[in-house]
Amino acid sequence: LPHGHTPKVPIGTVFPDRRALGASGVHPPFQAGIYGYSGGQPAESIVLSEGYVDDVDSGDEIIYTGQGGRDPESGRQVADQSFDRGNIGLARCCEQGIPVRVTRRVPNGYRYDGLYQVESYWHETGRDGFRIYRFKLVAEDRSRDGSHTPNSPGNASPRRVEQSTLRVVRESAVARQVKLLHRYACQVCGETLGVPGGLYAEAAHIRPLGRPHNGPDTMDNILCLCPNHHVLLDRGSITVDSQNIVQPLGTPLRAIQVHVVGQQNTDYHRTRIYKI
Ligand SMILES: [Zn+2]
User: Fold this and answer.
1) CA of 16 to the centre of ligand 1 (A)
2) Residue 166 has pLDDT above 60, yes or no
3) For the whole model, what pTM was predicted?
4) How remote is the CA of residue 230 from the centroid of ligand 1, in Å?
5) How far is the CA of 116 from the centre of ligand 1 (A)?
6) Of 36, 235, 234, 66, nearest in space to 153 by CA
7) Could you tell me the distance, in angstroms and rounded to a whole number, from the CA of residue 22 to the centre of ligand 1?
8) Predicted local confidence at residue 51, as pLDDT
9) How far is it, in rounded angstroms, from Cα 102 to Cα 3?
10) Reduced to 3 states, what is the DSSP secondary structure of residue 131?
11) What's the CA gap between 35 and 104, in Å, rounded?
């Protein structure tokens, strides 16, 4: 696999220009910001260039704007982006737990800053008024809680297992309450999973928690779901419309009177997460 660190290029290496960066193998193209996604592959690397109005770079955490619809001169969006090419490439990194190489523009050239995991992705209207795709990247050392191992993207999988465990462990009292109210039945399919310890369901946040979505951990932002429907909701395959119908399934959300879902949360999900 060409993913992971480039041999003989330590983190922190600075290249004077894009040509030198390309020749190193870290990021071959001289123009494109995303590389390595051809043939439907997960992307291999990205370059953060300054001046893109929608990018947010806080070091260990990056909100990266996908490709397309951008004026190369000004860096501004002049058209909607599509979910294709490098944007799908970065989404594949997220789904498969494969990290991307991140290179930053620095005053004296381009600096290779190591591997980042694509933690999530969604779409929104950018500052210039056009649809953009967004990718939350987290530095590998931070996201995996351990030291990085060069050239072994397969190491990303333990992190994903850990994450799904934490999803349950970190659950708040209000999340547990929602599951109890629904007696652990999925609000989409009605399925209840019996496990040796009793019943199992997951509390799914409609508007995601944490940066940059900052969804609330409140009952009106939580659904009781089976793991399958939790993933489909998180990834934007299903959503809930203004009539509380699960789309595109066309089935009503299984509701109980004491648990009312917030319209502002389903609106957010429908416009930002649904059908990436
Ligand atoms: Zn279900």
Assistant:
1) 52
2) no
3) 0.79
4) 7
5) 32
6) 36
7) 46
8) 65
9) 12
10) strand
11) 14
